[in-house]
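Q: I'm building a small set of examples for a reading group on sequence design. Run inverse folding on the following structure and report the sequence directly after it, with nothing in between.
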């Protein structure tokens, strides 16, 4: 192999606002500073959306039933989520980041994005400038991880939250997180963790030391190899900015499997709104709307529908996604739910292909 074939070392940053919804509430209500704040819906099935770090000290965490959070921390201030405010604040954050970096980002959710800084001079200094400017101009703290891949960057940004700023090579990540539970590796959820535990694999180091054939035997060829590569922080997935993005999706993995349709519907509404916000920010519209479900047994189901018009309208996407969910009527516990919009308009002069009446989307696993 010639030198020319050796790919340039990538520099990728992951940015994640600290306890974002709670931070927005604290900005609006400075009198709550220092108090445990929990953003959660009301009603018997409400779950915690975000907890401030003060509330986390009492064991309160995201996706926990609000009733449990109230028992753990009765003195916490409970606030109903206000997604309009969160979207506004999100726009303000990413506008400032965009001003500093002047490049396209891959938005994962309202408060999280990746950016590829490979050809940017002094990327670390620029990321420090991002943190400082968002803090002073918007009042939000951003944690940053910088590394050679999305996996390293994401793991690094989560390392010492809040206000984390970590730069790690792949080798350093392999070492730094050896003692961490396998769940630390993005993509490994509670169910996979359980299956790994059954093999005596609890930590990243255990997974690094595991025999690949044993993993393949237990998880299948593709996932077995993927788990092994993941444990050594190998990841060459690109940062998908809008320029190369053919679709936009948002998904969530539940801490505990969900069977209740009303609860799933609430999550679909939130995800549809996140996806549409991203599309609106990029001025993109799509005609295919899809949902993805992963069941507790790891079976993946995708359903999609192509509509007659290009859209990034939250109401339209929500309605179609909800219809797909209801039509599919999940009959078993669901561990992951995703919403996607695809089939964007072609830029420039191009022949528009007729829309398929029904398309199947494959959402990223
Ligand atoms: Mg966050």
């Amino acid at each position: 192999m010639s030198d020319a074939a050796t790919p340039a070392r990538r520099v990728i940053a992951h940015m994640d606002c600290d306890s974002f919804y709670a931070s927005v509430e604290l900005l609006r209500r400075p009198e709550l500073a220092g108090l445990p704040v929990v953003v959660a819906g009301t009603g018997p099935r409400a779950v915690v959306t975000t907890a401030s770090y003060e509330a986390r000290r009492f064991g309160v965490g995201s996706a926990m039933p609000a009733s449990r959070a109230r028992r753990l921390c009765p003195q916490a201030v409970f606030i109903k989520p206000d997604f309009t405010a969160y979207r506004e604040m999100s726009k303000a954050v990413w506008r400032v980041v965009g001003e500093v970096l002047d490049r396209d980002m891959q938005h994962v959710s309202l408060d999280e994005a990746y950016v590829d800084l490979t050809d940017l001079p002094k990327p670390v200094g620029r990321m420090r400038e991002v943190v400082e400017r968002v803090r002073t101009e918007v009042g939000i703290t951003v944690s940053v991880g910088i590394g050679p891949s999305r996996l390293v960057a994401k793991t690094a940004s989560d390392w010492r939250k809040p206000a984390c700023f970590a730069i790690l090579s792949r080798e350093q990540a392999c070492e730094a997180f050896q003692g961490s539970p396998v769940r630390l590796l993005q993509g490994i959820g509670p169910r996979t963790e359980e299956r790994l535990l059954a093999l005596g694999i609890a930590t990243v180091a255990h997974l690094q030391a595991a025999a690949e054939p044993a993993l393949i035997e237990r998880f299948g060829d593709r996932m077995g190899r993927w788990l092994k590569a993941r444990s050594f922080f190998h990841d060459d997935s690109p940062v998908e900015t809008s320029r190369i993005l053919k679709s936009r999706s948002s998904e969530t993995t539940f801490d505990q499997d969900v069977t209740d349709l009303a609860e799933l519907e609430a999550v679909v509404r939130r995800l549809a709104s996140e996806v549409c916000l991203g599309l609106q920010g990029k001025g993109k519209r799509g005609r295919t709307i899809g949902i993805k479900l992963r069941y507790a047994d790891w079976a993946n189901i995708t359903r999609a529908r192509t509509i007659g018009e290009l859209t990034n309208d939250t109401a339209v996407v929500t309605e179609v996604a909800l219809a797909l969910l209801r039509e599919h009527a999940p009959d078993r516990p669901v561990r992951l739910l995703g919403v996607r919009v695809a089939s964007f308009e072609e830029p420039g002069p191009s022949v528009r292909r007729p829309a398929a009446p029904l398309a199947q989307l494959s959402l990223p696993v």
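The pocket of magnesium ion is lined by residues 16-17, 20, 111-112 (CB under 6 Å).
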